[in-house]
Amino acid sequence: MTRRLAWKDPVSFYDPEDDQDAQAPKLRRRGWKVSGRDDLDHRIGWPPTPWQKVKPGDRLWVREEWRVGKTHETKKPTELPERKCTIIFTAGGSMGNADGGWTPDLNYPSSKPGTFPDWAGRRRASMHLPRWGSRITLLVKETKIERLQSISDDDCFYEGLIPYGERDPDGRIFCHPFRENEGWIGKEAFGELWKHLHGEESWDANPEVVALGFRVVNANIDAPEAQAA
Predict the structure, then answer these.
(1) What's the rounded Cα separation, in Å, for the pair 135 and 93?
(2) Which residues fall within 8 angstroms of residue 38, CB to CB, at 6 or more apart?
(3) pLDDT per residue over 56-86, tens digit each?
(4) What pTM does this model have?
(5) What does the DSSP assignment read for the chain?
């Protein structure tokens, strides 16, 4: 499971009550969340993020930090020979066609994160990984919109937190994500992880998020295994 923001940054706009071309109804039809007018006839609008369009049955592909061989060092992602060069992942493993198919290999050139052979080129940001280079596909099973701090104990587990002990009257205890031998209430432990990734102010704001439940398929999104999942 993962959580993504449901709304983009807010924008303010002038929308007087007697305007024949009122903006609020139009924006709401486009999925915006719109506030009431203030004393100066201004409103605040929040555009929806693309995550709100994700629905059960959709397939998503995961972007990871990556590299290719030095022979392709100067090429842009759009210039790389599709499915004909090995993609090396910073997390370990690779995608390649050594076996005659485009499949992931968890052990080549190394399963150890951050370990690269001499022929590996420069680091490339995850946002630039091409679709054909992905090795993990997420099959969406469920979606819901809720406040960030409304996360349940079960969802804390599905988000990857490790149970620390038995459930107590206040909720399931989980291991602190960064401190050894510390047990925290589920929501508080998840909050520490969220603040580490997005900043403390993001947790305190308690925004609405899209919670996505999914099944992981270890294959490229266009591979037969992912298509049939």
Answers:
(1) 10
(2) none
(3) 999 999 999 999 999 999 999 999 999 999 9
(4) 0.84
(5) -EEEESB---EEEE--TT-TT-SHHHHHHTT-EE----TTSEEEEEPBPGGGG--TT-EEE----EE-BGGGTT--GGGS-TTSSPEEETTS-EEE-TTSS-EEESSSS-SSTT---TTB---B-GGG--GGG---EEEEEEEEEEEGGG--HHHHHHTTPPB-S--BTTB-EEE-SSSTT-EEEHHHHHHHHHHHHH-HHHHHH--EEEEEEEEEE-S-TTSHHHHH-
Sheet architecture: strand order including 137-147: 2-5, 208-217, 137-147, 59-61
Alpha carbon distance 210, 3 (integer Å): 6
